[in-house]
Design goal:
Elements: H1 2-5, H2 12-29, E1 33-35, E2 38-41, E3 48-52, E4 54-58, E5 61-68, H3 76-87, E6 93-98, H4 104-113, E7 119-123, H5 124-132, H6 137-151
Parallel strand pairs: 5-6, 6-7
Antiparallel strand pairs: 1-4, 2-3, 4-5
Helix pairs in contact: 3-4
Amino acid sequence: QSFFGLFGESNPYKRGKALEAILNRYFKSSEISVSEAITIKGDSGSGIVEQIDGVVQVRGQLYLVEIKWEQETLGRDKVAPHLVRVFSRGLAGGIVISYSDYSPAAILDCKDALRDKVIVLCKLDEVVRALENEIELKDILHRKIDAAVIHKNPLFIPVFENVS
């Protein structure tokens, strides 16, 4: 109910923060270790340097999570900052969850990044369908991670009826 109520929230900041909290609960209920949002501040007076929406652990691997709820297609300008965060953190991979579609350029950047990092692109409607079908998020993420690693497909969309 909390999740579906977000579709009526017009304030993007409130909607984004509420979505982070809801997705963190979904990760936890799916037995995925999760850390809440992380804010990194710079030296005195420089303010916030970096903000990470969450960190999850899937199959023993850490993934930095970026959540975007924007009306416009996510271009490379919206995805690239997350890739920079991921690449600046040794062994971490990256997950982006977006309300909107991804541009071909953003998908290509993520596909290229797969040479060095595991990057997974998710759409919020996948989460909606998983919730409606009572599918655990970890099952979906396992399939998406496998597709990214094996087939170099960061935007694999699983068939929900056959997930187990």
